[in-house]
Each structure stands twice: as C-alpha cells, then as structure tokens.
Amino acid sequence: MIITVEGIDGAGKNTLVRAVREQVEADVLAFPRYDDSVPAQLAAEALHGRMGDLTDSAYAMATLFALDRHGAKEQLEAYVGSDRVIILDRYVASNAAYSAARLRDDAVIDWVHDLEFGRLGLPKPDLQVLLATPPATASQRARSREAADASRARDAYERDADLQERTFEAYRRLAQRQWAGRWLVTTDPATILQEIT
C-alpha cells in the first residue's frame, strides 16, 4: 500500500506519520526530499528567496516538486501490488492543493494530475489522509517550531497565512472529490490504522 499524509505546514504530518508507523510495519518517505533531490533543493532555495523570481510561477514550483517525486518513482513502484506499506509525508495532492491556492483556480488540479500521474507515471496512492488541523493551530505550530530550531526557518509559503488558509480549503475540496483515490479526513491515528487494516 501507498498511504499519503497530507496537510498544510504545521498540521502535524510528521507526528502522525510516526504514530502510525509505530503500529504498522511500514517504510516512510517525506516529500520534498531536500537531502537527496536537486529539484527539491532548487525549490527550497526559491522558497527562501535565493532563486530570483522563480516562486512567482506556480507552475514552475509545481514542476520542481513533481520532478522531485519522479526521482523516487522506482522506489515507490516497489510497493504497488506488494504486501509492503509505505507512508508518504506529502505526495501529489500537496502540489495540487498549493498550486490551486496560489493561482486561486482549481483548473490547475487537473494539470497536476496529468503531469504527475500521467506524463511522469507516478503510482496513485491507495489511501490519502488529510490532517484536519485548523490553519490557525497549524500556523502557531510552524512559528513555535521555527522559534525552537533555527534550522527550521519558515519559507515563503509557510509565512503566508492567507495561502495556508486557501491551501487547507483546496485540500478539503480534493478530499470531497476523492481526487486520485480514496481520502480520509481526520487527526486520529487510530482511525487511520483502522482504515489501513
């Protein structure tokens, strides 16, 4: 199974992934892969203001994040049709939600679907979990994380509270549509474990 955990910055994705992993024998992979992927590293540079006007283009940023995932395609395909489980901390839906929020237009959602699942051939997830953490709570967590750890400086997306609100609403629309597969909206690890079982 490929299970994705989705949500805005500070929603608690990492915490939830760890909680589920303790109960299920699963591998974990987080996107973006900043340590291993040149496209992810370029996106990070852009989000911290070191790539000129690159962040001005939602399509350019979405393409960098898509290419990061494409770099893990072979690794992900090993879980398709197997008895192994991988939990992904963010996946394709994050590109769709953030792009729709940035452009204020859901038409880009179909473009992301075609790019990542079509042209790049990434496997679709078996289950997508949206963490239903309210944006105000998530924002406070992101600020606290930054204050406690200088290496966790918030990027341009994380500092934009309005963008985070719009992204959360875009995620909710994706979940309502059951976009690219099954969705579960929760903050409860037990509910996720029950669904996996």
Automatic annotation (TrEMBL):
Its EC number is 2.7.4.9. PANTHER family: THYMIDYLATE KINASE, UMP-CMP KINASE 2, MITOCHONDRIAL. This is Thymidylate kinase. GO terms for cellular component: cytosol. One of its GO terms (molecular function) is dTMP kinase activity. One of its GO terms (biological process) is dUDP biosynthetic process. It holds the Pfam family Thymidylate_kin. It comes from Corynebacterium halotolerans YIM 70093 = DSM 44683. PROSITE patterns: THYMIDYLATE_KINASE (PS01331). The keyword Transmembrane does not apply. Keywords: ATP-binding, Kinase, Nucleotide biosynthesis, Nucleotide-binding, Transferase. InterPro entries: P-loop_NTPase (IPR027417), Thymidylate_kin-like_dom (IPR039430), Thymidylate_kin_CS (IPR018095). It comes from the Bacteria. Residues 5-178 form the Thymidylate kinase-like domain.
